[in-house]
From TrEMBL:
UniProtKB keywords: Cell membrane, Membrane, Transmembrane, Transmembrane helix, Transport
Organism annotation: Gordonibacter faecis
Residues of the signal peptide: none
Entry similarity comment: Belongs to the binding-protein-dependent transport system permease family.
All copies of domain ABC transmembrane type-1, residue ranges: 103-292
InterPro entries: ABC_transport_permease (IPR053385), BP-dependent_transpt_permease (IPR050366), MetI-like (IPR000515), MetI-like_sf (IPR035906), OppC_N (IPR025966)
Annotated localization: Cell membrane
NADP found in the keyword field: no
UniProt topology in membrane: Multi-pass membrane protein
Chief location category: membrane
TM ranges: 41-60, 109-130, 142-162, 270-291
Protein name: ABC transporter permease
PROSITE patterns per the UniProt record, alphabetical: ABC_TM1
Length: 306
């Protein structure tokens, strides 16, 4: 009689311990969810455009009509016009060019902060969920204490200890988001680790490390992917808030939150100083939120059936 193969929850036979069909189809589901949702598709295109702008302004700054860091006091606080589409700031720098260059910092902070929180959160959540016992108690109580403090206040406290700077802002934003990923991964693993295919992996002698990273974590990918997509928008907002308070990127670098903070004193005299950076933040955060909705729809079996 042929030996019966252990299967994952979706009924896919394990091949060498890995649900290959499921691993390949999850990204197809993500793509399908984005394409089927018009708002999500438009958001994805918008984000791709932002990424292209960030790359072009990083490696080919000569394409910009003005140097975003060059001061020209003779054109201080010039309103939007054909020469300066978004106007100029108090130092005479072109706001349009600075908003474009600001995409570099915004996307970098969002992606880097999520990478930190995702990596650490997945590791801690995996240990808490799979090992249980004292490990679970200690790790999750620390996560609960972090969650008890509003994320932006905790980020400000960390920045006060580390000092201002974009690299330190990335660390602070990444640290405050760790509990969210840890709790998601832990809750998923608590149910997954009781399945038959995990027990079968133990019987054949796989180590705990191999079981978690080859059999358990792949089945938490849908929740992790959705949370990470939405987490980028949260990281961008937190970075803008720190920049607004003067704790993030430091002059003369162009960052949308810092531009908002420096323009607030000229709100009535030169409102464009806050309008255009504010719109950039709003549209970018909205785009990532709508993209996350499309990703969630693609990975949600109930949504795919509707």
């Amino acid at each position: 009689m042929a030996k019966k193969l252990a299967t994952e929850p979706n009924g896919v036979a394990l091949q060498g311990g890995q649900p290959k069909e499921k691993r390949e189809s999850i990204w197809k589901d993500v793509f399908a969810g984005i394409v089927s949702n018009k708002a999500s598709l438009i958001s994805a295109i918008f984000i791709i455009v932002l990424a292209l702008i960030a790359l072009v302004t990083k490696f080919f700054p000569q394409v910009l009509p003005y140097d975003p860091y060059a001061q020209n006091l003779s054109e201080s606080l010039v309103g939007p016009s054909a020469a300066h589409w978004f106007g100029t700031d108090i130092q005479g720098r072109d706001i349009f060019c600075r908003v474009l260059v600001g995409t570099q910092i915004t996307l970098t902070v969002g992606l880097a902060a999520v990478a930190i929180s995702l990596t650490v959160g997945v590791i801690l959540g995996s240990i808490a969920g799979y090992k249980g016992g004292k490990w679970d108690t200690v790790i999750m109580r620390i996560m609960d204490m972090m969650l008890a403090i509003p994320s932006i206040l905790l980020a400000i406290a960390i920045m006060a200890a580390l000092g201002p700077g974009i690299e330190k802002a990335v660390i602070a934003i990444g640290l405050v988001s760790i509990p969210e990923y840890a709790r998601i991964v832990r809750s998923e693993i608590l149910s997954i680790k009781e399945n038959d295919y995990v027990a079968a992996a133990r019987v054949v002698g796989n180590s705990n490390f191999a079981i978690v990273f080859r059999h358990v974590l792949p089945n938490t990918l849908p929740s992790i992917i959705v949370r990470a997509t939405l987490g980028i928008s949260t990281a961008i907002l937190d970075a803008a808030a720190l920049g607004f308070l003067g704790l993030g990127v430091q002059p003369p670098a162009a960052e949308w939150g810092d531009m908002l903070g420096r323009g607030r004193n000229e709100l009535f005299q030169a409102p464009w100083l806050m309008i255009f950076p504010g719109l950039a933040i709003t549209l970018t955060v909205l785009a990532f939120n709508l993209l996350g909705d499309g990703v969630r729809d693609g990975l949600d079996p109930k949504a795919r059936k509707r």
